[in-house]
Automatic annotation (TrEMBL):
It is an enzyme of class 6 (ligase). The gene is gatC. Residues 1-19 have a biased composition (Polar residues). Residues 1-33 are annotated as: Disordered. The lineage of its organism: Bacteria, Bacillati, Actinomycetota, Actinomycetes, Micrococcales. Heterotrimer of A, B and C subunits. SUPFAM superfamilies: Glu-tRNAGln amidotransferase C subunit. It catalyses: L-aspartyl-tRNA(Asn) + L-glutamine + ATP + H2O = L-asparaginyl-tRNA(Asn) + L-glutamate + ADP + phosphate + 2 H(+); L-glutamyl-tRNA(Gln) + L-glutamine + ATP + H2O = L-glutaminyl-tRNA(Gln) + L-glutamate + ADP + phosphate + H(+). This is Aspartyl/glutamyl-tRNA(Asn/Gln) amidotransferase subunit C.
Length: 128
């Protein structure tokens, strides 16, 4: 993340459309994300954040925790867990032997061949 905030950005509130303003340090309810926690985690990850970035990330993390809590409320034992909104099905077809080229037909259009295989130039400087 950046180390300096240009003056034009420092006047804007450090929240995004999907976040809400960050809680002040120490007044959050249990499970709430505080600026102090974000700052501590950034330090553990060796990420230097500006105060504006800490405020913005705190608000975004609070929104994420709130959304997870909403999902947890509706995820009851009678609602099966799903990874996809519609059931998946196998779309592979059966293997069927069809009309294929003979070896001579396949090699007939090749720029180079040795009679039974395509001949290609060496790659990555490897000689054979």
């Amino acid at each position: 993340m950046s180390t300096e905030t240009p003056p034009s950005e420092s006047a804007r509130p450090a929240t995004s459309a999907n976040s809400r303003p960050a809680k002040a340090d120490g007044d959050g309810a249990p499970g709430e994300i505080t600026s102090a926690q974000v700052e501590h985690l950034a330090g553990l990850a060796r990420i230097k954040l500006t105060p504006e970035e800490i405020t913005k990330l705190t608000g975004e993390l609070v929104a994420i925790v709130d959304n997870v809590a909403k999902v947890t409320e509706v995820a009851t034992p009678d609602v099966p867990a799903t990874s996809h909104p519609i059931p998946l099905q196998n779309v592979f077809r059966d293997d069927v032997v069809g009309v294929t080229l003979t070896q001579e037909q396949a090699l007939s259009g090749a720029p180079e061949h040795d009679g039974s295989r395509f001949r290609v130039s060496a790659i990555l400087g490897e000689e054979q």
